[in-house]
Amino acid sequence: MVRFTLVDVLNRRSLRMDLPPATDVGEVRCIAEEYWCSEGFLLRNGHRILDGSDRIAECIADGDTVEMIPDPVLSLRL
Questions:
Q1: Residue 37 belongs to what domain range?
Q2: What is the maximal distance between C-alpha atoms in the chain?
Q3: Sheet of strand 48-49, all strands in order from the earlier edge strand to the far edge
Q4: Which of 3, 4, 70, 78 has the smallest number of CB atoms closer than 10 Å to its CB?
């Protein structure tokens, strides 16, 4: 299991997650969308924007803080 914290930087809230390393990053995004009823954001770990098809084991380590940031492309459409 990979344990990390997901932080919604816009609304200043966080969620501690404990997921199998083979889980897709897209699944993390779906969990966050459902839990916080939010859409239109990207996931960032450090300077890297995470792709939904990446596996957690490839881009997130134990103890990392993954940030939810507004998607600038979607912001331009509104």
A1: 2-77
A2: 38
A3: 13-19, 2-8, 65-70, 41-45, 48-49
A4: 78
**Percent of the chain whose predicted confidence (pLDDT) is above 70:** 94
Give the N- to C-terminal CA distance of the chain in Å, as an integer: 38
Residue position matching structure tokens 């997130």: 60
Condensed to tens digits (0 to 9), the pLDDT of residues 46-65 reads 999 999 999 999 999 999 99
Nearest to 29 by CA among 64, 62, 56: 56
Rounded to two decimals, what is the model's pTM? Answer: 0.88
Residues 6+ apart with CB under 8 A from 30: none
- The C-alpha torsion from 40 through 46 and 47 to 50, rounded to 10°, is -50
- Placement of tokens 């779906």 in the chain: 30
User: How many domains are there within the chain?
Assistant: 1
Q: What is the CATH number of the domain that holds 59?
A: 3.10.20.90
